[in-house]
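Reagents: none. Just compute today. N-formylglutamate amidohydrolase.
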Amino acid sequence: MTKAFEISGVPSEGGVLIVVDHASNHVPDEIDLGLSPQFADDHIAYDPGTAPIARLMSQTAGYLAILGTASRLVVDLNRYPDEPAVIQQRSDGVEIPGNHLSAEERMARIDRYFTPYHDRVRSLVHDLKPSLVLSLHSFSPTLRSDLQLKRPWDVGIMYNEYETASRFAIQFLEEESVLNVGDQRPYSGKELNATMNRNCEAVGQPYFGLEIRQDLIMDEAGQRRFADILLRTCDKIRTALA
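Predicted 3D structure written out:
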């Protein structure tokens, strides 16, 4: 049976915790989404590139990553458990027949994959007291449902009420002169920030959310490049926050 999360790295107090909600496109054997196999590697299934980056970063002392292990089509970990979108019935124009569930089936899936992940994130924040939490995502440069929409940013920074670490992140990432940095792009953390709202903002934990454009991190070279950039950026933010 699929475990709800993966831990990468060695836990240490006061380090950096990397939280990757949409790390995996895995659909457990016991779940039939009713989708064509062509969508297994699609952006609606997960955030491509984020898991390798988190694992690379967690090879550095003081960095620990927690990664969700089920596809976001099974359960979207960056939602609230009582909102409809936690189990999507349609994503970027694609119907997901296997997500038309009864209330009991819906709760069983949340209890199996959503709750243990968030319980572990919460305990890591409480026990390790990280100097910084990085919420790591990636975004598609285009969408099937809106072919006219273009997303030109290399990275986007997301935040809600707590802005301090995000402001430093924007500054330091812009100093990586080749990067086009979006402030609250391609969407706002005021609207999509559930994991950080619940596990960081609620307890005063410094964090920032980062989205990387997927076409920049589809191969190992791009993943290593951004792992290095984020290690430098997180270390600078930790110093600025101290």
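Helices lie at 50-57, 103-128, 164-175, 194-199, 220-241.
Action item: order primers for follow-up constructs.
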